[in-house]
Structure formats: structure tokens, C-alpha cells
Design brief:
The radius of gyration is 31 Å and the shape is elongated. The model has no long low-confidence stretch (mean pLDDT 87). The protein is an alpha+beta fold and 619 residues long. The longest helix has 34 residues, at 26-59. The termini are far apart. The relative contact order is 0.09. The chain contains 15 helices and 28 strands. The strands form 7 sheets. Strands 19, 20, 22, 23, 24, 25, 26, 27 and 28 form a 9-stranded antiparallel beta sheet that branches. Strands 5, 6, 10, 11, 13, 16 and 17 form a 7-stranded mixed beta sheet that branches.
Length: 619
């Protein structure tokens, strides 16, 4: 309400000022003022982006973050006021006399030109104010509504002068005020960007509202584009993924429309440093309104906001998970505090348009020369190829993205278990099949997600894709048979191989050499497999646990690696024939695993537990 009243008041005051018959007013003076206002607006919108970057680069940290919050606003208002003052002074100095019209002409002509001046001035001021980092509402007005995670521009002003002003300068940027970087192409619908940049994460604490950052430091180290990946396919397929196969994703554009059929998926991978982008908590928090992909078709530009993002689910995760911006995830936050974090923002680019640049919190970077995956430049076909490339690690490796997660020194000490090397190697289960002929029946999977995958040209197989669930022995035993409605294996992504390390095998009275090492070193450690030739660690992304009551717990989740066996797994009881504990690792094909290692809590380096002689090839 307040913003609408302020807008109308500004319009009335400026219009009324120029349609009076006082000296220096009237039609001719109003016309000259209108020319100056339009020219000043063109200058202000033309220099807004570089001036914003100049302020952020040189004074962004000043005022305890205040300058950062007002920089985009100041970068539009200051050039506008300065240009208008210079133009008015120059025109008044050059045009020494007014033109004498009758009162009716002065009133009508002055009012027409005054309305134009008022609209441009008020529109420019409102766009500038909308960039203020004050949260979702500006003077009681909320432009953006959240519709199932989609940020939609639904509430214009009563007199939408901000929208009209931007539309006028977009037209002029490809016509009378044309330049090599026209507003219509490189900053389309700037009034929407202004409102969306304020659609940030807000939280309440001690009866105070804390608003997340609306801009970031434009330093190259803060925000780097690491690469891009393009996928084609039917729209519904591109909106699906392997992590949430049963959840429909209803995507809308900022205008509230469905994306066009024939759109392509464009994932832009960026690496963001917490030092220039994190909140006071140390985490980086993004909303889809703070990310814009600019795509161009001829003289036309379009701004697209992400509908999904690839990111790490936990700080120790070695892979990316695809999260959707929807009712479940309306924001995306870095899993850890400090350091660098990778985000792969996914956009649906309309047919005929080509991605040109990406804007992250008002900082734009060109996509020219950005590395592509695959390196040959072709596009992937379908969501399965997209997800497999990300999950398999090929994209991360090809684009040289630092994932963090397992940033550990080489293990120290000597292996605890070195006896009977033949048993050590043969005891490793080199298959994705569940141990002890277990199987999970379709429609009784509980917390597990099952999926049907192609096996050869004419056969399919039901597999465990992700999740965690506990079953009674009578629900999951070998009696489930060989039906197509039973999942008896973990899904093994392309380029990966599953290895299972048994700490205690069911129906065996004694624990394994791995179990003895864990008992000796401690169950509070993170289990890892190590390849000495490449100095790489591999995490356990799942386990199968059978307790003394024959309850079976299965976990297989790339977003939740086992980081502490005592906390992440059920009780580590390894006595009795019916108990069993199996750790599930995902290894890159071509790697030869040399050691089973424990990263113990509170120790400076991981400890060797078991050395494989010979190494185990993940072929």
C-alpha cells in the first residue's frame, strides 16, 4: 500500500509541477525537461551494471554490509540524478528564453510532457528502490509469490511505472539508443530482476527478522564459472531425475507460464567462495530469484531462473545430488561453513535461444569460452544421461571442479590386519547383489526407492536406487523368490562398481578380518577404501545391517556417506550367527583398491586397517 501511494504521489507532484503557467513552466519547459529525463534515464540504465560492480569491488564490505545492500540502488539513482542535473544545467544555459504559448497549450502540453517525465523518473526510482536488500517486501508491497517453489511476478503496482520504464528503455536500446550490449538482450525485464533479487531467505530470531544477502563480492575468487552441460529431451523427462523419481515437478516461469516444449536443459556449474558470499552463519544460501541465465535469440533476450540445482547434500559427500526448487526445497544452502562450494544451476532454455551469461546475486559473468561437458561439445540425450554423468563423477573430473569432502592426508601407521592376505581379498564382495540372498519386494519398500533399469535389449531389472529402511527377517529373506517385483541388487551407475566390505557375515560364527580391525581401532571412525597409486579415498554410501533380532536395515544413499559407524549405523553388535554388517562402497571403474582405512574421530590422519594383497581392481 505504501509503495503504491508513494508512486502515485510522485507522479502527481511532478506532473503538476510542469503543467502550471508559472515562469519557467508550461509546455516548452516541460518538453525540454522530458528530453533531459529520458536521456538521463538512458545513461543511468546504461551504466548501472558497471557502477554496481565498481561500488561492490571498492566498498562492498563497508558499513557492516550496508553498502552491499544499497549498491545496486545507488548505482542507478546516482547516475540518474547526476546526469539529469548536468543535462538540465546545460539546456538552461543553451536555451535562454521560453516559448510563449497560451494557457491551454501550456496546461495540456505541459501535462502530457510532465506525465512522461513523471513516469520515467518515478519508474527509475522504483526500480532502484527494488534493488534494496531489505527482504521480500518493499514498503508493504510484495511483487513475488512463491507457487510450489516457483517465484512468480504476480503483483505489479497500481500504476506499473517501473515496468513501463524498463520496457521503454529496452525498445530504445535496440533503436535510437542502440549499443553493442543493449538492455533488451543483456538485462531483460530489469524490474523483475530487481524484485527477484530481494526474494531472499529470511529467518526470525529474538523477534527480529534477519534477511540474507542480496549481492555478493564480484571478486573472481568469490564466483567462478567452472563449466556447462546441455541436455535435450522431452520436457517431462528433463524435469525428472533419479533421486526423486516419484515426485512430479511443476515448473513455472517468472511470468507464471509453463516452459515451452522443446526447451533444452542447461546446467551451469559455479564454484562460490564463502568469504565473499556467505551469511553470518558461514553458510551460502541461494534462492532461485538470485540466479538468472540470460539467453539470446537475435535482438531478443530472455531471463530464466533455475528450477533445480546440483549440490552436495552433506559436507563430506563426494558426489552431487539434484535438488528441485519446489515445495520441499525453496532455497539451497551449502552443507558446510566456510571454504568453497559447488552449485550446478539447471535452467530450461526456450527453443531458439542460446545461453549468453549468468547472473548470481547481481553479478554477471559471460559464458563465452566456458568449458563444456562433454569436451567434444555435443549435448546429452535425456535426464538419465545427465544424472549418470553427474553422479558418476565424469562432469566433475572433466570440468576440474574441487568437490572437497574427502580432503585427507595419506593414511599413517601400518595395517592392523596383515595375516591371511588371500582371505582378505576373497572376503570382499565384488557384486551389487544384496548379501545372503536378501530381496526387497515392490510395494513394501518403505523408505527405499526402487527403480526399473534396462538390462540388455529385452530385459529389465528392479534395483534399489536410494533410501533407508528396516525390515523383519520374514519380510526380506531368500523366500521372496526371483520375481520381477523383487529388488535383489543395488543400482550400480555407469562408470562405477560396488564393493561390499563385510565386518561380520551372517551365518558365520566369527567376525571377518575387517571386523577385527574395526574392533581394535574403534567403531567411531569413518570407513574408507584407498587407492595408493592415485592417493584417492572412496566412501561407504550404504550398508546392510542384521541385528540380534534378525531385523535388517538397508541404506544406500549417495547424499549420506557413513562418516561415523557408531552414529550412522545401528548398534555395532557382531556376536552370533544371525548378525551381519556389510559396508557398501562405490568405486570408479579402473581403480585398484589397495587398503581398507578408518578415519578415526580426533586423529590427525586416517589409519590403515587392512591391506589388500593383491589390490582389488574395480574393472
Amino acid at each position: 500500500m505504501i509503495l503504491n501511494v508513494l508512486t502515485i504521489a510522485m507522479m502527481l507532484v511532478i506532473t503538476g509541477l510542469w503543467c502550471t503557467s508559472q515562469k519557467g513552466r508550461g509546455f516548452f519547459s516541460s518538453f525540454l525537461c522530458m528530453v533531459c529525463v529520458v536521456a538521463a534515464g538512458a545513461i543511468a540504465f546504461g551504466v548501472w551494471e558497471p557502477v554496481t560492480m565498481l561500488i561492490l569491488e571498492n566498498a562492498g564490505d563497508a558499513g557492516n554490509g550496508l553498502v552491499e545492500r544499497i549498491a545496486p540502488t545507488a548505482a542507478l539513482l546516482l547516475p540518474f540524478c547526476l546526469a539529469l542535473a548536468i543535462l538540465r544545467f546545460s539546456v538552461d544555459a543553451f536555451v535562454g528564453k521560453n516559448v510563449d504559448f497560451d494557457d491551454a497549450t501550456n496546461f495540456i502540453g505541459g501535462m502530457v510532457c510532465g506525465v512522461a517525465s513523471a513516469a520515467v523518473t518515478t519508474g527509475t526510482v522504483i526500480v532502484a528502490l527494488n534493488f534494496l536488500g531489505v527482504g521480500n517486501k518493499l514498503m508493504g508491497h510484495e511483487y513475488i509469490e512463491n507457487e510450489s517453489g516457483n517465484l512468480v511476478y504476480t503483483s505489479s503496482l497500481w500504476v506499473p511505472v517501473d515496468k513501463m520504464t524498463v520496457a521503454m528503455y529496452e525498445k530504445l536500446s535496440t533503436a535510437g539508443f542502440a549499443s553493442s550490449t543493449p538492455l533488451a538482450q543483456y538485462a531483460p525485464d530489469l524490474h523483475e530482476q530487481a524484485a527477484l533479487s530481494r526474494a531472499v531467505f529470511e529467518t526470525e530470531k529474538d523477534n527480529k527478522t534477519f534477511v540474507a544477502r542480496a549481492s555478493l563480492t564480484p571478486d573472481e575468487r568469490t564466483f567462478q564459472i567452472k563449466g556447462r552441460m546441455t541436455t535435450t529431451g522431452a520436457k517431462n523427462d528433463l524435469l525428472s531425475d533419479r533421486w526423486f523419481p516419484d515426485r512430479q515437478h511443476n515448473v513455472r516461469t517468472v511470468q507464471g507460464e509453463q516452459p515451452a516444449e522443446g526447451s533444452t536443459s542447461e546446467v551451469i556449474f559455479v564454484q562460490v567462495q564463502a568469504a565473499g558470499a556467505a551469511e553470518a552463519s558461514g553458510q551460502i544460501v541461494f534462492t532461485p530469484g538470485q540466479i538468472r541465465l540470460i539467453a539470446i535469440d537475435g535482438d531478443e533476450g530472455v531471463a530464466i531462473h533455475p528450477h533445480a540445482v546440483f549440490a552436495k547434500a552433506t559436507e563430506s559427500a563426494g558426489v552431487l545430488t539434484r535438488f528441485r526448487f519446489d515445495d520441499t526445497n525453496e532455497t539451497i544452502a551449502s552443507p558446510g561453513r566456510g571454504g568453497e562450494h559447488v552449485f550446478g544451476f539447471e535452467f530450461l532454455v526456450p527453443p531458439g535461444f542460446s545461453p549468453d551469461s549468468i547472473i548470481v546475486r547481481n553479478v554477471r559473468r559471460s559464458l563465452d569460452g566456458v568449458s563444456r561437458y562433454p569436451e567434444t561439445g555435443e549435448v546429452l540425450a535425456g535426464a538419465t544421461a545427465r544424472d549418470t554423468a553427474v553422479l558418476g563423477g565424469e562432469v566433475i573430473a572433466a570440468l576440474d571442479i574441487s568437490m572437497g569432502g574427502i580432503d585427507l592426508p595419506a593414511p599413517g601407521g601400518t595395517p592392523v590386519a596383515t595375516d591371511n592376505p588371500t582371505l582378505q581379498t576373497s572376503a570382499v564382495i565384488q557384486t551389487p547383489t544384496l548379501p545372503d540372498r536378501f530381496g526387497v519386494t515392490l510395494n513394501r519398500e518403505r523408505g527405499l526407492t526402487l527403480a526399473t533399469v534396462q538390462r540388455g535389449r529385452s530385459s529389465t531389472q528392479l534395483v534399489i536406487r536410494s533410501g533407508r529402511a528396516t525390515f523383519g527377517a520374514d519380510e526380506i529373506g531368500g523366500a521372496v523368490g526371483a520375481s520381477d517385483s523383487v529388488a535383489k541388487t543395488f543400482e550400480q551407475p555407469d562408470g562405477k562398481r560396488i564393493l561390499m566390505i563385510p565386518l561380520k557375515e551372517r551365518k558365520q560364527p566369527n567376525i571377518t578380518v575387517f571386523g577385527r580391525a574395526v574392533q581394535q581401532l574403534g567403531t567411531s571412525g569413518q570407513p574408507l577404501l584407498y587407492d595408493r597409486s592415485s592417493s584417492r579415498y572412496f566412501q561407504a554410501f550404504g550398508f546392510v545391517h542384521i541385528d540380534t533380532s534378525n531385523n535388517v536395515t538397508i541404506q544406500y544413499d549417495f547424499t549420506k556417506p557413513v562418516t561415523n559407524m557408531s552414529e550412522d549405523m545401528p548398534g555395532m553388535v557382531m556376536n552370533g550367527n544371525d548378525t551381519g554388517i556389510y559396508l557398501v562402497f562405490l568405486i570408479d571403474r579402473g581403480v585398484s583398491v589397495t587398503d581398507f582405512v578408518l578415519n578415526l574421530q580426533g586423529e590427525s590422519e586416517p589409519r590403515y586397517a587392512v591391506r589388500f594383497q593383491p589390490p582389488i581392481p574395480a574393472g
